[in-house]
Design a protein that fits this description.
Layout lengths: L7 H26 L3 H27 L3 H16 L8 H22 L1
Helix pairs in contact: 1-2, 2-3, 2-4
Length: about 110
């Protein structure tokens, strides 16, 4: 691994993202099946927090000349495309797209309350 990923700040950010990803993954089925209104709001907040942390880490990647950090940008884009996000979007547009999706989910949830 490169010096970029040896940075304590980067290590902490990656650990925080991993923890949030785990929480989101563990809650996904509940969101679709058993969560009440408050639990769904909490789940959506977890998603917002996760995407915000990912966006910050993406910005660190994009400001770095480190080849591993630059390669991570490509991997992020591939993962987003595999999740069904339009491939013509830049990473910043992807984060905006995801933010809008969550806002739409919140709006739909609030109208059903």
């Amino acid at each position: 691994m490169s010096d970029f990923f040896d940075s304590e700040i980067v290590k902490e950010e990656v650990a925080a993202i991993s923890a949030l990803q785990q929480r989101v993954m563990q809650s996904t089925l509940g969101f679709a099946t058993t969560f009440d209104y408050e639990e769904k709001k909490h789940y959506m907040q977890l998603l917002k927090d996760l995407f915000e942390k990912q966006k910050i880490l993406y910005m660190r990647f994009s400001l770095s000349d480190d080849p591993d950090a630059r390669a991570m940008i490509d991997r992020m884009k591939i993962v987003a495309t595999r999740m069904g996000i339009p491939s013509n979007l830049s990473m910043l547009e992807i984060f905006d797209y995801l933010d809008q999706k969550i806002k739409n989910m919140e709006k739909a949830l609030d109208t059903r309350k």
